[in-house]
Design goal:
By secondary structure, this protein is mainly α. It contains 13 helices and two strands. A two-stranded antiparallel sheet has the order 1-2.
Amino acid sequence: MKFSKPATTYDQQIDLLIQRGMLIPDRERARHYLTHLNYYRLGAYWLPFESDHASHTFASGTRFDDVVSLYVFDRELRLLVIDAVERLEVSVRTQWAYRLAHVHGPHAYLLPAIFKKADIHQRCLTRLKEELERSHETFVEHYQNTYTDPPLPPIWAVVEVMSLGQLSKWVSSLTHGQDRQAIARNYGIDEIVLTSFLHHLTIVRNVCAHHGRLWNRRFGFQAKLPKRPIQLHQSLNHQQPKHLYNTLVMLEYSMNIISPDHHWKARLIALLEKH
């Protein structure tokens, strides 16, 4: 079937929503939002208000402001989640570099023997070198202007230019379980849970970074859930493992360890109550 839908003006979009049963008492307000928030983007937020998806008819009483409120909630949720993900990422960077530097030396990441597969290690190293070449960080330039052997900075420096996705691969590809376990021990979870959660958070972070919908999203990659500690296990939802709830529980648990005075859970609850 050939696509034949024409582009619509803001006023046509408003008329269409009204025709489908949405209450829009203030057209100027609605036009303002549609001017700055793509109609197609907002569609993901009014989907739950539809009584019939085939005809896109809205349930009685559906208001445009309800849709906007849901969108605002999701935006604020993304900011809260990215705050926690950032703190966990920086923490794991620290633990990964500390463990390898003290056990395998300042340039441990250059040693193929401590990583599972040579090809994976080489891809990670190539990506890291590319990041270092693009970097204008003072510590990178200082090392390059001061030292020639090895040509790359020590692990505690290079870890600062890694993305979360790169860090996840570096941690999971470690050969020795005791290295991964030593890192995970700082968070009171098993190394299998940590590596799985880092992979999952890479996806979550990408959604947040690209302003994607976080609320009501099903994630394709399901992070492994811990059986210990018991209090965390009892809080998890094993019926809907691919939704955001377990991610939030794990982040709240992590924040209690990394930044206990940050009151992240209280901020999350306040956000839920606000909306």
